[in-house]
Amino acid sequence: MPRRNKVVVTQVAIVLALVLIWELGVRLGLIDAFFFAAPSTLVGRIRNWTSTADFWGDVGMTLVETIPSFVVGIAIGTALGIWLGLSPFAADVVQRFTMFNAIPRILLGPISVIWFGLGLTSSVALGVTLVLFVAFFNTFQGVREVNPVVLASTRLLRDSKSSLLRHVYLPSANTWILSSLRVSVGMAVMGAVVAEYLCSSAGLGHLIAQAEGVLDATGVFAGIIVLSAFVVALDALVDRAEKRLLVWRPAPLHEA
Fold it and tell me: Are 157 and 239 part of one and the same domain?
């Protein structure tokens, strides 16, 4: 059996074993069903949700908030990373302010609501702040990692700045930028869900908040499972896009 198939089979076996232990624990009374509903109960709740139009409206709302957060955050972060990577003076000036990156940006959620009000704009604004820094630092590092020999050779040929950017800097940063996409999509979803949890009347975050408000642990766990599946689906799409764009990159040795 190929290594990849063995990995998948092992992963599935681990998940099934954990679910089985959980189900048996609840049925035997070893686990309190009020706090940890049985997996079969969670499946039933999710089945009920998926049969309603409101649920799919919540999924659509979260998707509508995630996509602009992801696209705008990547665009702004990549542009800033290229600019600072090509400008040592500007990078030195801004370097002192990178300490603010340590501040948990989830705390900006209430501020975003105050500034932009309730609705789509505040959710997108929060998502952009989460995605932006991931894209920025990866792009900045990628530009700084340009091979100095290649850079010196192209400068000897008196290439213009635009030519250097197009043929040297961007190809060097390309892998770094694309590698940040998978992290960024998770950050975009996080921003959308947190904003929904705080103030929205729709979305997966709102669905979880409603369940929490009535101490419905089953609803909370079911919402988390749905949200996890949502993120995994988006991650799979980004992973496929990354592999298409980086088709030239050699496979790792353990996959060869």
Answer: yes
